[in-house]
Amino acid sequence: MKIFRSSESYDKVGQRIEFRSQWPGIAEGDKEQEDYAFGPLQSFDHAIIRKGTLIKMHEHKNDEIVSYLVKGEFVHEDSHGSYETIRENRYMLMSAGESFFHQEGTPHMDAEMLQIFVRPREVDLPPEVHFAKYEPQQGFRLIAAPSDAPLLIRQNVHIYDLHGKAGESYAIPAYEDYATCIYVFDGAIRVNAEILTKRDGATGNDLTELTFTEDGLVLAFLVDLEAPMTKEGPFSGRNRPTDKIVSRMWSDVKKDVD
Description:
Largest sheet: 10 strands, antiparallel
Structural class: mainly beta
Mean pLDDT: 92
Strand content: over 45%
Number of strands: 19
Order of helices and strands: EEEEEEEEEEEEEEEEEEEH
């Protein structure tokens, strides 16, 4: 098991938006390596968007982006004509493909979410956007996968979530030849004798069971590290969050925010 801690995230914090980005490919690893992604799972941003923020219409290409909102809500508009409110148990997948424009706003309340960036299997696929409503359930719940899931992601990445109470233990999903990554969105867990708290995570094929030490929420990612992928996406295609790239991304966000 390799651990990545909240203190190791790449952060950009402003008055209206907080982005705390984790790159699970370098959990306890060599930060001199060329690519920080975990196979096609490039990174995820733990974001807080304050009430009254509008991230104006902007373009994505060749990015698969899952918007997993936990607290509050935001309003989504896009170049496909969608106008949707995203809130807990209603999630979104933007498959940008050759070109896709969207904007997000928080007119009524703050929003806290995970924005998950995945590298698609091919370049310039047709752009798509999907929305799905989920029912609460006991145990791990499938959020997105390449097939047989509410959100169909164009890559060999399976995403699960799990709400648990202190003292409860759960087996972590596993697929043959897939690598595992877990992330603590809220609360705290014990896994392999280690305690992980909010915004901590871990990777490894020995991640088989977790126990909640506090009420919380965990996400699990099962990833085919050898899957074909394109790195042409301007977000998901980046190899690492160097200071220069992080500053440029933050400048792009500030330019698009009202």
